[in-house]
Structures are given as C-alpha cells and as structure tokens.
C-alpha cells in the first residue's frame, strides 16, 4: 500500500499515522477494561454477554419471543415440539376468530344461519376457549319447540278478537303432533325435519301412531319366528347347527339343497359320508326337517295323544314336544315297515326333529309321485295289486294303518311303489284307526278306478280285504256306523280293563283280547 496516498486521503486523521486507524492489525484506539479471572468464569457474566450478542444479531426474533408463550412461568420452552405446538395454537386461534367474524358478518339477523364449524381448527388440548366458543349444534333452533314456553290459560284460548287462538288451533296442534313423533319406536323412521316448520293433523298423526305400533308388534313377531321356527325352504339356527354337526362328523358329505316342501316338513338332499361301525350310510340321503312352527300341528294331535306308544309322553300344555314326538313316530313306523319288507325309505339316524333317511331316486332327482307319473295299463294294474299287498302287510304284520295313504304319498321307482310319509300312521287299536283305514281305502280305490283298473275294488270291499273284517252293509252310512261301533267297543274295553284289543274277528264273533 502507498503510505503517501493514504495520508492524502485523510488529512484530518489525528496526531498518529492514518494507516493505524484503518488497518485491522493496527493498535486499537481504546483500551479494554481489565477483569479478574473470577469474573471471566462467572455464569452470570456469560449469560449477559450471550444476551447482548443475541440482541445485537437478532433484534426482531427477540421482540417476537417476548410474547406470553416464552415468558410464561409454567411453560417449558426447552422442547422444540412444545414451542411448535404453542405457535400452532396461536395461529389456530387467530384463524378461528377470523371465521367467527366472517360468520357473524354473513349471517347478520337472518333466520337461516350459516356455520363454519367444520372448518375450525381448535385443538383438543386448547383449554383457554372463550365463552363465545360454543358448539352451534347445541344452540341451534328447534322448529318443534317454542323459544319460550307458552301456557294455555284455563279458559282454553289466548288473545282477543281476530287474534284469538284456542288449544284446538290447527297450527298449534300440528306442531305438537310433529314433536310427539319423537316418542315413536327407534325402528320407526320418522325422518329429519330440522329447519322445516312441519304441522301434522290429528288424523295423520293418529294413523302414523297406529302404524308405528303395528310395525313394532310385527317386527317382534317376525324376529321370534325367524329365531325359533323353520321357514319355507329354510331352517332355523338350531336346525342349521344340527346339520353342520352331521357334516362335520363325516356322516354326511354335503347337503345339496331342498327337493320337497310340505305342510309339516321340508326335505333336503344330501350325499352320504363315511360308513360307521354300526350304521351303513347310503350314497344319497334324504333329510326330513320337521317344521318347528305349531300352526300345522294344532289339529294333528289326535294322531299322537291316543297312540299308546306316546300317550304318556303327550302334553298339550307343551306343544313343542309334539314335533319331536312326530319325528320319532315316523322313525318307529318306518322301522316296522322295513322289517316287514315293505318298500320304504331306510332310517339312518334321528336327531331331535331332523330325520335322515335313504333317498328314493337317483342323482339328486327324486322319484316321481304316483299322481305325476304316467303308467300303462299293465303297470297300473301291477301297482294296484302291489299297494293292496302292502296295505295288508302294513295292517297285519306291522300292526299299522297309514292314515294318509293316497297317490301323493306313494312314489314310483324301479318299477314298484314306495310308501313315504308315515309320521301320522297309527295302530288299528287307535280310537280312530278303522276310520283312517276306511279313508285310505277310499283314496286308493278312487285313484285306480279313475286310472282304468277294472279289477279295482270299491272302498268297502277293499276295507274288508285289508282288515279281514266281514262288515256286510248295504250302504256307506251303515258301513261307517259299524266301524264306529267296533271302535267304541275297543275304546270301552281299554278304559275298563286297561288292555288293548289285539285284532278284530273276521267271522262276526266277539273280538279277541289280549289277557
């Protein structure tokens, strides 16, 4: 550097050379204050020096930090997360205040208000909310309820002249009826009328009230029926559990679906499972599920209550037991028929009201009923004599009367007739056993006579041929009167001696009793 040029640029520099005041390596113009070693090691002095440096370097930050968040006594400012949350809360407060001002400006005195509640950002840990920060839903206007409670005076009206309003006023009653809809059952949907001044007339309200009560009772009935009864082509939860257990145990491989429905039962098709030690499971099975509803069994207790096999167990006070007894009755009757060699389904197992039998048919296709199949004259004649032979076997060997024998309960499979549905079958000693037999004979005789079988006997001749009785009556009325007399004789003997009539004589002699 040229010392001459520097001196010329600063003529008023002072007594010393000019380069000494400008050069950083020059001697300082002021002398520093000396301090002791103890003062240098003092923490208080270090904090003061640090604060002076911060004030000199960042004056704006210090001014902003002098707010209530930094100087609070109970606030820990050593955590950066806490500082960030505090700053965010302050921003959210300002944002919410701005929303409230905009809300108040837009609404004004309007009856329909707009709320920005969903856009607020108040944090859950913000406990310093002001008094005006109230949820708008808690203070919204309810059109069903008056702002101030109004009382109807004893005289029944308020106002005078044209402004008179009675307790029967259409508007007042309409609003009261609308408010009363809140007392309906929760399942009855009344809709949302918030913001609308609804008025329901007494006629409409009474109709809605009656409908709500009826729907509530109907819902209860449907729920009970669904839980405790077997519906059409469906099963209740308890029955479904029984079927699941049969499949899980390996007895059944799978249940394919429903193949038949009736008044008292539903029949499903299933494939047989593994062969057990004591039972042989057929390849195809029929699952007969007796409906657990009581409607179809109200008038059918006569088939059970007078049957000596179930008489002691029958109780009309507990009608649900009749259903299981009905399934058990069919199982025992099928077992008798099977032992006698009568073509019928083979019983596999009985679980409560679910009866598993062999399937009469092939490849999930059930055998047709006798009423649905078309037979030639030779097959029709063959079927007639087969049924006549089965009725005699059923009466004499099995000691049973079908009691519902018709073309609807006979199947045609493999060139022969199969008997099904024997749950209502009773013994001839039943108080109405002979009446049931005569009814069966009438159904069979009429069907085959219409089918063109010339050899078909009439109902009276068929009755004598099956039962072995020799009732000679010229007309049907006298014939039925003799049948009732025989039944009465057997019933009196049972009541007097407690013994059942074993059979009826075939030659007009007095009946033979078991001693």
Short recap of the structure:
Residues 137-148 have a biased composition (Basic and acidic residues). The protein is 41% helix and 11% strand.
CATH topology of one domain: Phosphorylase Kinase, domain 1
CATH class category name of one domain: Alpha Beta
Largest sheet, strands/sense/barrel? 5 strands, antiparallel
H/E element string?
Answer: HHHHHHHEEHHHEEEHHEEEEHEEHHHEE
CATH architecture of one domain: 2-Layer Sandwich
InterPro entries: Kinase-like_dom_sf (IPR011009), RIO-type_Ser/Thr_kinase (IPR051272), RIO_dom (IPR018934), RIO_kinase (IPR000687), RIO_kinase_CS (IPR018935), Ser/Thr_kinase_Rio3 (IPR017406)
Subunit structure: Interacts with CASP10. Interacts with IRF3; RIOK3 probably mediates the interaction of TBK1 with IRF3. Associated with 40S pre-ribosomal particles.
Keywords: Antiviral defense, ATP-binding, Cytoplasm, Immunity, Innate immunity, Kinase, Magnesium, Metal-binding, Nucleotide-binding, Phosphoprotein, Ribosome biogenesis, Serine/threonine-protein kinase, Transferase
Protein name: Serine/threonine-protein kinase RIO3
